[in-house]
Design a protein that fits this description.
With 86 residues, this protein is mainly α. The chain has one domain. The chain is built from three helices and no strands. The chain starts with a helix and ends in a 17-residue tail after the last helix.
Length: 86
């Protein structure tokens, strides 16, 4: 068997397999409301440590709090579009 025929046959087999997976119904769309809420609660943990930090949006306020508490300031800064971070 030539390599070209082998590659062409493999490509056809992959294409048929891909078409079959698109044709099958997705079981994720068949979730009931109670199952959805159970999975949603599992995927969204409530004990995230970053939520307990008193974040500041003003540098002056953060500096005043840091001076009174004797703690350093962590500054997160970026340049560009918030979705692209250029």
């Amino acid at each position: 068997m030539s390599p070209v025929r082998f590659l062409f046959g493999t490509f056809r087999l992959a294409l048929v397999g891909l078409a079959c997976t698109w044709a099958l119904p997705c079981p994720a769309w068949q979730l009931g409301e109670s199952e959805f809420h159970r999975l949603h609660d599992e995927l969204h943990p409530t004990n995230e440590l970053w939520k307990s930090i008193p974040w500041q949006t003003s540098l002056i306020t953060a500096q005043n709090v840091a001076v009174t508490e004797g703690k350093p300031i962590f500054i997160w800064a970026m340049d560009g579009h918030p979705l692209g971070c250029t």
